[in-house]
Input
Amino acid sequence: MNLFILAQAAVGSSGILGQVFLFGSIILIMYFFMIRPQQKKQKETKKFIEEIKKGDEVVTIGGLHGKVYSVEGDTVLLELDKGLKVKIEKSAISLDFSKKPSSTK
Output
């Protein structure tokens, strides 16, 4: 009887190591496929927003397409159409329109 209990305890402890290994591998997979790419995208977006200059074509998070007319601290003056200018926060710019892949028809 005692041998039976000891044998089950030995099998149970190896099962725990397997579970710890499985849990650790799931965390690593989540890091490399979810967390790391998101951090990389955030760094690229932050770098882009810091490097905005006059003449860049951008798209805001609201969907407005325009050309940067001037940069003043944390705000950007965006020219939408001939003479129409809008003042927005730098954080409201989502992407560089000139680098956006164009679709071919």
